[in-house]
Amino acid sequence: MNFRTRFKMRHGLMAVAALALIAPFTPRLLHAAINAAQSGIPSADTAIVGDVRSDKEGAMEGVLVIARRSDSPVLIAVTSDAQGRFSFAREDLKPGKYDITIRAVGYALAPTQVTVGAKPAALPLQLTAVTDNDTLASQLTSLEWLNSFPGTDAQKDVMIRNMVNCAFCHSLERVARSSHDATDFLSVMQRMLTYETDHSSADRIQLAWPPQPTENLQWFGRDAKPIADWLSTVNLSNGRTDWSYPLKTLPRPTGEATKAVVTVYPIPREMSVIHDLDVDSKGNVWYGNTGWDFIGKLDPKTGKFSEWASPNALPAAHAPGTDRIIGVQDIQVDGEDNVWVAIGGTKHARFNPKTRKWQTFDLPVVWKNPFLGPVRPGETGLWATGLGAPPEGEKRHEQAFRLDIKTGQLSKGITLFDDMPAPNDPTHKNPLNYCYMMDQDADGDFLCTAPEPSGIVRANAHTGKARFIPTPTPIAYPRRGYRDPQNRFWFGEFYADKIGVIDLNNDVIREYPVGVKWISPYYARPDAKGRIWVSATGSDRLLRLDPKTGEIVQYLMPVSYDARKVVVDVRAAKTTIWLPNKNAAQLVRIEIPD
Questions:
Q1: Among the listed residues 276, 269, 268, 271, the one whose alpha carbon sits nearest the alpha carbon of residue 74
Q2: Which residues contact 574 (CB under 8 A, 6 or more apart)?
Q3: 384, 348 in Cβ contact below 8 A?
Q4: Are 253 and 544 in contact (CB under 8 A)?
Q5: How far apart are the C-alpha atoms of 37 and 183, rounded to whole Å?
Q6: Sequence-ordered strand ranges (E) for 484-531
Q7: Pairwise CA distance, residues 439 & 445, whole Å
Q8: How many CB atoms lie within 10 A of CB 480?
Q9: What φ, ψ does residue 189 adopt, rounded to 5°?
Q10: Relative to the CA of 175, which of 51, 301, 463, 563 has its CA 20 to 30 Å away?
Q11: What is the dihedral of CA 318, 319, 320, 322, to 10 degrees?
């Protein structure tokens, strides 16, 4: 697979299209809702108060209760506590009729509607246990399917611990319900490899590559045939009408994991793909649309969306039958609220929200990494990488460049990997050295995650010298992360199911196990209290690490999500996390009462 494929095809075919315009919602009163739920007595600030019960369990903890007003696609979710109680704050829910649904694997709720008015509405919910496999199957996350599948850890590792796996595009339910035999699966994988994975939605495919022969087909460096052979044993092929194995579920949230208010904002533009977002000083959420050449902005105070067309510097399609790929991937807001994006081609682009004009900056590369380093208040260097020359075998000639965002001056490229040996991974053919996501240390010097050699690359902007620091766990596959005020860079270890941190003062890396196999930590972001928020792939859970104790809290989301970035709104009154839901074209806000 060539260098562009290796970088660009990472995440998978989109599975869900965007929804319609939303109605405005104002900031919420979290404490009022939490206190009301804990006491069972509604306050004046409470819109709905209730409890969740079932004949099987009695009072049920960890059930997500989801409200949607009849004239809006926005979802707002809270979670029942240890006594089964829950409440919604009045500022969450404007007067009107709301449809109520739940998320609790193994349980169902009859159609329920409630009217929010001047007085708090009482809402007792009685759940029924799911008794048939077909309904239960529709509730499983991809991680629950993977745990249920028969097979060895090695078989599951080769499929799930990959740069791109089936669950990047859609739930593994689609695999489990299919009737494909091994030959059919090879054809499906051949077809999926033609898609531009970060820029396609379920209804709008962008074709990036001609199909490869199915003979000796490679799935992102792995032999596709053993994967296809195994998948054909866990689905409904060969005339099977039900699964021959028990369906295993993950525990529901408990304790701290029940104390969150989650709001889901669908993107108005249909067939959108939202890979990255960032938050400006006013709390506005900016996002890049990789399904279209647009950037967008959500004002959470009003619920209003805005969008602007973005430049695209890519040449024409490189092969017959493929598309000229469009879309904006990474997006970073600098200390003056200018919006920086990685557009297709060899350029950076800056959008000024005041003038609504673009400015582009050329990089002397033949290909540019689609990510950008963050630029915090007070920082003036924007780091990115690209290939200074066409690859020669294992040498890809990747260089790091610093753009001074005040002067527009671009630094000389720093060569990163040419003197390093190729990585060694016995399950992966021809692994390569490359940077994935970059940041800068407290001195403004470059750093990036290097997934396949499994480590962190650092480079001095003045001397031009680069060095490599390996992760303690081999083949951990560090993915994306962020530097904290203590000059430590936190990152997800995608294959190791760990959270890593490198102390940039001494190059020492420490790892924190997540404790759940195949949960696949992706992006790690510290908050103002020193806690680390981590997106995970395939489990619909947002993770929170307390580095002092090693404790991991798992917040279950009300929707199936795939977030390639985690942003903490440091200016918000309470801990506020934003996720871009790539596959479902949504922006997700998680608020935690401190």
A1: 268
A2: 30, 591, 592, 593, 594
A3: yes
A4: no
A5: 54
A6: 488-493, 498-503, 508-513, 521-526
A7: 8
A8: 28
A9: -65, -40
A10: 563
A11: -80
> In this predicted structure, what is the pLDDT of residue 41?
55
**SS3 state at 527:** coil
Indicate the pairing of strand 446-450 with strand 438-440.
antiparallel
| Residue 403 DSSP symbol | E
Answer yes or no: are the C-beta atoms of 335 and 380 closer than 8 Å: no
pLDDT value at 428 more than 80: yes
Is the predicted pLDDT of residue 538 greater than 60, yes or no? yes
Record the tokens describing residue 383, joined without a space.
């780091």
Q: How far apart are CA 344 and CA 293, in angstroms?
A: 9
Tell me the one-letter amino acid at 423.
P
The identity of residue 519, as a single letter, is I
- Helix, strand or coil for residue 175? helix
If we measure between CA atoms, which residue out of 76, 206, 146 comes closest to residue 516? Answer: 146
> Residue 96 forms beta bridges with which residues?
116
The answer to whether 419 touches 428, Cβ cutoff 8 Å, is no
Nearest in space to 157 (alpha carbons), one of 236, 230, 217: 230
* 502 CB-side CA count, 13 A: 29
Q: Supply the pTM of this predicted model.
A: 0.92
Centroid of chain to Cα 172: 17
Residue where the block lists tokens 């092929």: 237
Interval 539-571: pLDDT, tens: 999 999 999 999 999 999 999 999 999 999 999
DSSP 8-state symbol, 174: H
Measured between alpha carbons, how far is 425 from 421 in angstroms, rounded to an integer? 13
Instruction: Give me the pLDDT at residue 24, please.
Output: 33
What is the dihedral angle through the alpha carbons of 388, 392, 395, 397, rounded to the nearest 10 degrees? 0
Q: Is residue 28 pLDDT above 70, yes or no?
A: no
Residue with tokens 């800056």: 350
Cα 368–369–374 angle (5° rounding)?
A: 120
Which helix (H) or strand (E) segment holds residue 541: the answer is strand 541-546
pLDDT for residue 594: 79
E strands, 436-507, where?
Answer: 438-440, 446-450, 455-459, 466-470, 478-483, 488-493, 498-503
Instruction: Provide the residue type at 546 as one letter.
Output: D
Task: Report strand pairing: 112-116 vs 96-103.
Answer: antiparallel
**DSSP symbols for 145-173:** HHHHS-S-HHHHHHHHSSSS-GGGTS-TH
484 touches 441 (CB < 8 A): no
Pairing of strands 347-352, 339-342: antiparallel
Per-residue confidence (pLDDT) for residue 231, from 0 to 100: 97
pLDDT band, residue 533 (cuts 50/70/90): very high
Residues comprising the chain, all counted = 594
Instruction: Say yes or no to pLDDT of 16 above 70.
Output: no
- Give the pLDDT of residue 393: 86
pLDDT at 278 over 80: yes
Give the strand pairing for 121-129 and 46-54.
parallel
C-alpha dist (Å) from residue 316 to 96, 126, 208, 209: 50, 57, 11, 13
- CB-CB neighbours of 274 under 10 Å: 31
* Percent helix, strand and coil across the chain, each to the nearest 5: 10, 35, 55
Give how far the C-alpha of residue 396 lies from the chain's centroid of Cα atoms, to the nearest Å. Answer: 27
Query: What gap in Å lies between CA 511 and CA 191, rounded to an integer?
Result: 37
Nearest CA to 116 out of 53, 35, 34, 25 is that of 25
DSSP states along 189-248 = HHHHTTB-TTS-BTTB--B-SPPPPSTT-EETTEEHHHHHHHHTTTSS-TT--S-SSPPP
